[in-house]
Design a protein that fits this description.
Number of strands: 10
CATH topology of the largest domain: Trigger factor, domain 2
Strand content: 15-25%
Structural class: alpha+beta
CATH superfamily of the largest domain: Trigger factor, C-terminal domain
Number of helices: 11
Oligomer: single chain
């Protein structure tokens, strides 16, 4: 047998294999004997079918089965010897078997390239200090009070801050009449709409009034379809509702599970701090990853890119087991997928190089966060994670987070 391995690129290997016909004899004879033992033909006792009859009836099928098994066995052994770990299905090309000359074929396989990430511990990128201003606390308190507020119907003209309830009668966009939605009712908090012109047209209306509102959608409207377009709405007002803010008394604080206004303010401050900390941390990590990608170029196997894109898109349609991304989807999503794969490999390298580990406290803290988020008892959630085996994947996820923190200067314990 001869084997030749060629490095086509950093992510592709070509394996040329030649198997002598003589290597087929022993496994072929063994398989013929297995067939003889199992066959039961009319006129013969089970296991007593003559060899020549087995060969006459099933010889070609047995030979093909033997060739397939020998090829698979050879490939497995040669890949192991060469320490090649495929990241894509093997592609067999130029297969030749004339039953006289050597069985020859070529196998193409994609692999992850070896990487050596440099300068990850000296990027000069760090997470800035977090400062929460009084104005931010006040804005968040106002937002929360608005969330806890009630609205009541009032017999007067609407003003900014009111909720106007109505139904669409006619909608014309850029001169074209639009089909009205099945749900014609709308509720608009005046002053908070994504279309200020629509809100302005609703100021001063009363219940029972029909109003025509003309405005232009802002150029930064959340829906690109409407940006900069003229709009003509005819609406019927069914209610004007005034927002009544809650009174921050003892009953209010009891209902929200806090002691007093000071505890509420502290809670808001901590929430703002954590949110802002996560935002600036993630921004710093993204900047660091982009810098490491530039400093340490390496290729990504196309099959990994396609696999990630397929996995991402299939989340929207998990029941379609035969789903395959289109060429347009692969082309459009490849840059993002390549970056994500490179990020994973870079962090994986740092995890192993620095021998980064996760403490039990880190695991418990993450489980506590999940328990609070999903309103589940901590001990029950921890037991579920252990019994389902998810605790191992959680540890692995946290290891990568520790590596991400490491490259922006957040050092944590290395021992379990």
């Amino acid at each position: 047998m001869s084997v030749t391995i060629k490095e086509i690129s950093a992510v592709e290997r070509s394996i040329e294999i030649a198997i002598p016909q003589a290597d087929l004899k022993a496994p072929f004879d063994k398989k013929v004997n297995q067939y003889r033992k199992q066959l039961q033909l009319k006129g013969f006792r089970k296991g007593q079918v003559p060899r020549n009859i087995v060969l006459a009836r099933y010889g070609e099928a047995i030979r093909q089965e033997t060739v397939d098994e020998l090829v698979n066995q050879t490939l497995t052994e040669e890949l192991k010897k060469a320490k090649i770990e495929p990241v894509s299905p093997l592609k067999v090309n130029d297969f030749k078997d004339d039953k006289e000359q050597d069985i020859t074929f070529t196998v193409s396989v994609e692999v992850d390239p070896e990487i050596e990430i440099q300068n990850y511990d000296n990027l000069g990128i760090s997470v800035p200090d977090i400062v929460i201003s009084e104005a931010e606390i006040k804005d968040e308190l106002d937002r929360m009070l608005q969330m806890w507020s009630k609205d009541e119907s009032v017999d007067r003209k609407s003003s900014k801050g009111d909720v106007v309830v109505g139904e669409y009668v006619e909608v014309i966009i850029d001169g074209e009449t639009q089909t009205l939605p099945e749900q014609k009712e709308f509720r608009s908090l005046l002053g908070e709409s994504a279309s200020p012109g629509f809100d302005e047209g609703l100021v001063g209306v009363e219940k029972g009034e029909t109003k025509e509102i003309n405005f232009v959608y802002p150029n930064d409207h959340k829906n690109e379809i409407y940006r900069g377009k003229t709009a003509q709405f005819k609406v019927e007002i069914t209610d004007v509702r005034e927002i009544i803010a809650p009174v921050m008394d003892e009953e209010f604080f009891k209902n929200i599970g806090l002691k007093d206004e000071a505890e509420l303010t502290k809670s808001i401050q901590e929430s703002l701090y954590n949110n802002k900390k996560n935002t600036v941390r993630n921004k710093a990590i993204d900047e660091a990853i982009d810098k490491l990608i530039d400093l340490n170029p390496f290729e990504v196997p196309p099959s990994r890119v396609k696999s990630l894109i397929k996995h991402t898109l299939q989340k929207n349609n998990p029941t379609d087991q035969d789903f395959e991304p289109t060429e347009e989807q692969i082309e459009g999503l490849s840059p993002e997928a390549i970056r994500e794969i490179k990020k994973h490999r870079i962090l994986e390298f740092i995890v192993n190089k620095e021998n980064l580990k996760v403490t039990q406290d880190m695991v418990d803290n993450r489980l506590k966060e999940l328990a609070i988020a999903y309103q589940i008892d901590f001990d029950s959630l921890k037991k579920h994670f252990r019994q389902s085996g998810r605790i191992a994947s959680l540890r692995e996820e946290l290891r990568f987070e520790v590596a991400a923190d490491f490259i922006v200067g957040i050092k944590k314990e290395k021992e379990n």
